[in-house]
Specification:
Mean pLDDT: 81
Number of strands: 28
Strand order of the largest sheet: 1-28-27-26
Shape: globular
Distance between the termini: 18 Å
Number of helices: 3
Strand content: 35-45%
Low-confidence stretches: 17-85
Structural class: mainly beta
């Protein structure tokens, strides 16, 4: 994203707070709103944003976290509505359906396989992940979307020897893809890298049936894997050539490396969180999903932001249940909900992207007026307190993921339930948001 685009978005967030409402007395509001907007406008200058603050180091003893907050945090304000700011995108057009080439049927099985489970921008391309490791869909094609001076094209960039791609990570400019379910024997699990335009397969993770996630922390690589018996965290000090076991406990899920600690989220009834500082691991004793209503939420879409972690609770029925957005930067008090996502009748979070210091949130809900249609939205923030709605659109299947390339927003659709009960024929299609 060009610097002027970030500046424009920040100015619109600020302007939406300072422009008078037609129904409000102008003279009475201007002074108060100017005071509110001043720090926001000051933070949205054209110069580069300052480095994100380093998270405070936690006490890694296995005890309850101390009471009280480590630092004061204001309650998040409601997202600024499109009528208060500028509505960038109001519709969407389909620009591709590449996975249908291998899985063409509109059967429940093929719709589920085609689901665009993750998207990422790497270099000058957008990559889409799909597949179904529950029902063994075979090797997974990584299709790439390119934009050459406004001419969009799809290419089959690479094929992984795993049955699903649902996670992309970028560390130090390198794209990493964990091997969710190897199609070969299970003596080793896989991960893949893309450096520049070249792909490399690493079949090096010992006894890994599933490599669920991959993180980089203090120069070393870490994976969460399952060896047919239990989960464990593995560490590599040579960038994935060899691995050693960090810990073996059946509680781990997603990983996120911050500057001073690595967060290890668990897929338990209400979620769990362990923190690793490079020496020892400590369990945090609080609800990872406060206020959420999912029966079995999965921590997902983890991104570092403002010195902490932003994440969502994702479920395959996400469009029909509460899916809030969470922020964790106070490791004594625990996470909190931010924005108004996941509220009754509102939009539920599905995907997150951080571009040039701005957090973009893709959310969705079923269209109450049109069965089978889904209402998507994209909101953006620089501080988790003030939000700008930049897109509202309707599509014929739930938006699963999105990516931004050359200031354009692309959205991937997926099935509207598990493989045995979904009916979304548009699953697997990719859409471009338009004005």
């Amino acid at each position: 994203m060009q610097p002027h685009v970030r500046d424009t978005i920040c100015r619109k967030i600020a302007r939406s707070l300072t422009e008078p409402r037609p129904s409000s007395p102008v003279a009475a509001c201007l002074l108060l709103l100017a005071v509110i907007a001043l720090p926001i406008m000051q933070a949205c200058q054209l110069q580069d944003a300052p480095d994100e603050p380093t998270p405070s180091k936690v006490d890694l003893q296995p005890v309850d976290p101390p009471k009280g907050r480590a630092k004061a945090s204001p309650e998040p304000a409601a997202p600024v509505s499109v009528t208060d700011g500028v509505k960038y995108y109001s519709s969407a057009i389909q620009i591709g359906d590449p996975i249908r080439q291998r899985f063409p049927a509109d059967s429940k099985e093929h719709c589920f396989i085609r689901s665009i489970r993750a998207m990422v921008t790497h270099g000058d391309k957008v990559f889409v992940g799909s597949g179904d490791y529950w029902n063994n869909s075979g090797r997974t094609d990584l299709w790439a979307l390119s934009d050459d001076a406004g001419i969009l094209s799809w290419t089959l960039d690479y094929t992984v020897d795993d049955e699903m791609v649902d996670t992309f990570r970028i560390y130090d400019g390198i794209l990493y893809v964990p091997g969710t379910d190897a199609t070969e024997d299970w003596s080793f699990g896989n991960f893949y890298t893309r450096v520049g335009s070249s792909w490399t397969k690493y079949r090096t993770v010992p006894n890994a049936l599933h490599v669920v996630d991959i993180a980089k922390f203090k120069g070393d690589l870490y994976v969460h894997m399952w060896d047919q018996k239990e989960d464990m965290i593995m560490r590599s000090a040579d960038q994935g050539v060899t691995w050693s076991r960090l810990t073996r406990k059946p509680i781990y899920g997603r990983l996120l490396g911050l500057e001073d600690m690595m967060l290890i989220f668990g897929e338990t009834r209400r979620g769990s969180l362990h923190v690793y500082d490079g020496v020892s691991i400590s369990k945090m004793n609080y609800d990872v999903f406060p206020g959420g209503s999912m029966a079995w939420p999965n921590p997902d879409r983890l991104v570092p932001f403002l010195g902490g972690a932003v994440y969502a609770a994702v479920d395959f029925a996400y469009a029909k249940v509460s899916a809030p957005l969470y922020f964790l930067d106070d490791f004594a008090a625990g996470p909190r909900q931010v924005g108004t996502f996941g509220k009754a009748g509102g939009l539920n979070v599905r995907d997150l992207q951080v571009v040039d210091g701005l957090l973009y949130v893709l959310s969705v809900r079923p269209d109450p007026a049109n069965i089978g249609q889904y209402l998507g939205a994209v909101d953006v923030t620089a501080n988790l307190e003030r939000w700008l709605r930049i897109a509202d659109f309707s599509v014929p299947a739930p938006p699963y993921s999105f990516a931004i390339l050359n200031e354009a927003i692309y959205v991937g659709l997926g099935a509207d339930g598990w493989w045995f009960d979904n009916t979304a024929a548009a699953s697997g299609s990719v859409w471009l948001l338009t004005e």
